[in-house]
Amino acid sequence: MRKKCPEGFLLTSFVSERFGRINQIYVSLMSMAYMFCYMVSELSAVDGILTLLTGIDFNHLPIIFITITTTLYTAYGGFRSSLLTDKVQGWAIVILLIISTIGFGVSVKLDPGVVSSSPLLQSNQLGWQLLYIMPVAVTFANLFHQGYWQRAFSSKNDRELTLSAFYGSIMLFPTLFLIGFTGIIAAWAGTYPGPDPNNPVGPDMSFFSLYTLLPDWVKGFVLVLTVSLSCSAYDSLQSAMVSTMSNDIFNNKLPLIVIRGLTVIFNVPVVILAIRNLDVLIVFLVGDLIAAAVMPAVLLGLVDSLYFLNGFDSLVGGLGGFFSIFIFGAAYFNSAYEGALLFILSNGLYVGDYSVLGAFLVAPFGSIVFTFLAFGVRLLGMFLLAKIQGRVFEFPKRPDEKPYSTEGESEKTANVIINPDTTEGESENTFNNVVKDSHSMTEV
Questions:
Q1: 408 pLDDT exceeds 90?
Q2: Is the C-alpha dihedral spanning 75, 80, 84, 89 positive or negative?
Q3: Where residue 26 falls among pLDDT bands split at 50, 70, 90?
Q4: Do 238 and 92 fall into the same domain?
Q5: What is the pLDDT of residue 315?
Q6: Confidence class of residue 23 from pLDDT cuts 50, 70 and 90?
Q7: pLDDT at 415 > cutoff 50
Q8: Each residue of 272-314: pLDDT tens digit?
Q9: Calpha distance 361→157 (Å, rounded)
Q10: What are the boundaries of the region Disordered (predicted)?
Q11: Number of domain units in the chain
Q12: Are 314 and 300 contacting, i.e. CB atoms less than 8 angstroms apart?
């Protein structure tokens, strides 16, 4: 994508180059909706973690504190401040992993009987569904994260970008595996869903529920690291939001102070939703579902052989991805209302049916199908228009493909290329000589 859009800065820069301004605004708005979901998730998570580990109801003050703090230093330092906190985030994760490994290994005791009788290691329907849902969700979600595109386009060169992705993946895979597997350990240890059936621990808190078994000083240390991690992730989203609004929505025509003011206003609905203690995992998946519906039509623009797809096709494809979710939901539940609620996964992830799997299946494939349907309709319109006007119908040519010039124009072009300073008669003689020489060379 950097090769096709070398002057770009975000994913939407490529969209503008390939599919036009309208699609750039549309993808930018969808990207902002996606980042909005992640911002809500970040604040909700840290609020729940602080309450779980301290047992204190802070009345959502941590959410307000993190929002104000990150907004102030991001507004002052911009993207550089976000990159600086990312370095802090990296070290915080390493320290958190070391503490977790040692602490859980020493303090968490597992009953072998509980492990053997647990259904968690047995095959089940949801487990097989997640083998598709999670990779698809994460893949499209990462493509939609404008903060990641800032890092991709700002890398020194392609080699550095490739090495960064390679080494980052090597470190990230075991990290995610260890943190993810602690959910199963929490279930075996009894900290998830917890001893209180009236106040169960949510699945998104299972990792941190294990810290309730550790000493208080470890909890305090973990709280500091958790807040720093949340701030680092939240300021990256804020930075990406500012960049998207300024560069893509308003085309850098508004003063930066106005954009920063809009970002502050944008935080208000984020905070309002975060204090409602929404299911963090579901909010994440809703953002992923948006990306799964929009991104396939955009990625088709990277395929050189699909040069004939234009902005209309991509726009219809993205909207078709959302419409496919509604069609599937209405047919699956036999209710248009339930089909509409499938957009927000109202029944949750841990359901005993195929609704969530179906949504993540039809979103990307529906987007691709509607993209080509839009092109087919457009091609049919071009064919009918050509017949009405009495013209010969031609399949769309490549953007860089120039129409063939006439014989006279070819001679004139050749004359200019050979010697632009010659007169018309001299040019004609020169051109004839070149043609004769070329025939002689052919005979040789």
A1: no
A2: positive
A3: very high
A4: yes
A5: 95
A6: very high
A7: no
A8: 998 887 888 888 889 889 999 999 999 999 999 999 999 999 9
A9: 35
A10: 399-431
A11: 2
A12: yes
Buried b (16+ CB within 10 A) or exposed e, 393-408: eeeeeeeeeeeeeeee
* Parent domain of 87: 11-279
Q: Could you give the C-alpha distances from 268 to 264, 327, 435, in angstroms and in order?
A: 7, 33, 74
Hey, what amino acid is at 417? I
Please state, in angstroms and rounded to a whole number, the distance separating the CA atoms of residues 429 and 431.
5
In a domain, 383, yes or no: no
pLDDT tens for each residue of 124-146? 888 889 889 888 888 888 887 76
- Burial profile 31-54: b = 16 or more Cβ within 10 angstroms, e = fewer: bbebbbbbbbbbbbbbbbbbbbbe
Q: Tell me whether residue 225 is in a domain.
A: yes
In angstroms, the CA 295 to CA 34 distance is 12
Chain mean pLDDT for the chain: 82
Q: How does 222-234 read in b/e, with b if 16+ C-beta sit within 10 Å?
A: bbebbbbbbbbbb
Helix, strand or coil for residue 64? helix
CATH code where residue 191 lies = 1.20.1730.10
The mean-pLDDT minimum among 3-7, 380-384, 405-409 falls in 405-409
pLDDT for position 401? 53
Q: Domain end: 209, 244, 279, which one?
A: 279
Question: Of 258, 279, 300, which residue sits at a domain end?
Answer: 279
Q: CA triplet 342, 290, 2: central angle to 5 degrees?
A: 165
Task: Return all residues near 340 (Cβ < 8 A) that are at least 6 apart.
Answer: 326, 329, 330
Tokens at 416, concatenated: 């200019």
Q: Which residues contact 297 (CB under 8 A, 6 or more apart)?
A: 313, 314, 315, 316, 317, 318, 320, 321, 367, 368, 370, 371
Task: Give start and end residues of each alpha helix (H) in 119-209.
Answer: 125-144, 146-154, 158-189, 206-209
Residue 357 in any domain: the answer is no
Confidence of residue 25 (pLDDT cuts 50, 70, 90): very high
For residue 414, give every residue at least 6 positions away whose Cβ sits within 8 Å of its Cβ, in sequence order, or none. Answer: 431, 434
Residue 317: count of CB within 10 angstroms of its CB: 26
Q: Are residues 54 and 197 in the same domain?
A: yes
Q: Give residue-wise pLDDT tens across range 80-97.
A: 777 777 777 778 888 888
Contact indicator for 325, 366 with CB cutoff of 8 Å: yes
Residue 5: inside a domain: no
